[in-house]
Amino acid sequence: MASCRAFGFQNVYQQNNVTSIRCSSLAAVSKKNYNIALLPGDGIGPEVISVAKNVLNLAGSIEGIEFKFNEKLVGGAALDAVGVPLPEDTLTAVKQSDAILFGAIGGDATDTNQRHADIGIALLQLREGLKVFANLRPVSVLPQLVDASTLKKEVIEGVDLMVIRELTGGIYFGKPKGFGTNENGEEIGFNTEVYAAYEIDRIARIAFETARKRRGKLCSVDKANVLEASMLWRKRVMAIAEEYPDVELSHMYVDNAAMQLVRNPKQFDTIVTNNIFGDILSDQASMLTGSLGMLPSASLSESGPGLFEPIHGSAPDIAGQDKANPLATILSAAMLLKYGLGEVKAAERIELAVLDTLNRGFRTGDIWSAGNLLLNKLEITHEPNQYIHMQKLVGCKEIGEEVLKSVDTKTPASSSAP
Ligand SMILES: NC(=O)c1ccc[n+]([C@@H]2O[C@H](COP(=O)([O-])OP(=O)(O)OC[C@H]3O[C@@H](n4cnc5c(N)ncnc54)[C@H](O)[C@@H]3O)[C@@H](O)[C@H]2O)c1
């Protein structure tokens, strides 16, 4: 059965010194009509967004929710059309929306470094504009996909962790940054890793609250043996820990954390870390599940609309070929419902539909196990644990249609609750 816990989803936020569970507080003002800003972006972005939009629409309509979608340009698509990667019109629309569903942005191998940089700026500007400082990335190894991972089954079976990444500070935003010349006349490039205490405190509180709702263990990842910004990070996390005596706090250097994530990922419950370490570790953690194409994320601010997106990029190598796995985007739509709008039942309907689709054997190429016994031939079996041998390789559109069928037929447990 799918549920918040099945995907390890949790969410909290801090406002006026009162920490709340966002999804339940928003549920109280659930209005059933929502404006959703859709930003498909580039590469496989439009393919996965189109599928996720249909799933969101159907799950919503079954639960009596109406969506008004406002599709806007971002990334390379915007750069080509209007000369900037994040047009003013797009930023205004996202700020006025109830939540944002984002695909991916990025150029391809033929693009210059400058074009890659110009496009990449859009996402940073968007996060900054929306003030979404907390990025939640649940990583759960689903039993249906244990064989899709490159790691040994006994290492990854049962992994259920949450990476919480600080998203609007640190080296990606720190100043000074730029290019220059050193004392030997050589060209240099430089960036600044900088954190203020309040930035660490607010992400730490989100992490402690999240850990408290999970298994009560929080690991803070830093590089406090070398970096001053990490020394302050550790000091502030330890100070905030005094507010959460029930949560077991540990600290780990980022190099060790990278190693431990593949050696023994089950030791982790909730991980909190800065922007750049979180960027790298969450991609690494994603491979525990077998594919970037499975992982959703939520980026939340203190009060404005949340940004929901798959963690993968625009995948130019498979764009336009109907090969993309849309499940990460579909699961991001479920996070949008749950954490952005407080529509928990509709969210669970989608989560359940994804599990059901996988149980019925449908796989895109990235999660399809090579050596499958019945290649391209779907057979339904009632034998438990047999589904991994009964896979059908399908494209983005077809797996989307199968998810729609499951959305229609599967009822979340909470729907039947009194
Ligand atoms: N949030 C974002 O928009 C975002 C994130 C990361 C990278 N990017 C951009 O995307 C472009 C490509 O970057 P990259 O190749 O390093 O990362 P990527 O995530 O686009 O692709 C990495 C690999 O994973 C595969 N892959 C990714 N998503 C998949 C999916 N849904 N289904 C099946 N396979 C999938 C790709 O085919 C590729 O082989 C770059 O321009 C980069 O800057 C954007």
UniProtKB/TrEMBL annotation:
Annotated function: Catalyzes the oxidation of 3-carboxy-2-hydroxy-4-methylpentanoate (3-isopropylmalate) to 3-carboxy-4-methyl-2-oxopentanoate. The product decarboxylates to 4-methyl-2 oxopentanoate.
Cofactor note: Binds 1 Mg(2+) or Mn(2+) ion per subunit.
GO molecular function: 3-isopropylmalate dehydrogenase activity; magnesium ion binding; NAD binding
Top EC group: oxidoreductase
Domain Isopropylmalate dehydrogenase-like, first and last residues per copy: 35-403
Lineage of source species: Eukaryota, Viridiplantae, Streptophyta, Embryophyta, Tracheophyta
Keywords: Amino-acid biosynthesis, Branched-chain amino acid biosynthesis, Leucine biosynthesis, Magnesium, Manganese, Metal-binding, NAD, Oxidoreductase
Gene source species: Artemisia annua
Catalyzed reactions per annotation: (2R,3S)-3-isopropylmalate + NAD(+) = 4-methyl-2-oxopentanoate + CO2 + NADH
Cofactor(s) recorded in Swiss-Prot or TrEMBL: Mn(2+); Mg(2+)
SUPFAM superfamilies linked: Isocitrate/Isopropylmalate dehydrogenase-like
HAMAP family associated with the record: LeuB_type1
Assembly mode: Homodimer.
Protein name: 3-isopropylmalate dehydrogenase
Enzyme Commission designation: 1.1.1.85
Keyword Amino-acid biosynthesis: yes
Protein family per UniProt: Belongs to the isocitrate and isopropylmalate dehydrogenases family.
GO biological process, one term: L-leucine biosynthetic process
Recorded metabolic or biological pathway in which this protein acts: Amino-acid biosynthesis; L-leucine biosynthesis; L-leucine from 3-methyl-2-oxobutanoate: step 3/4
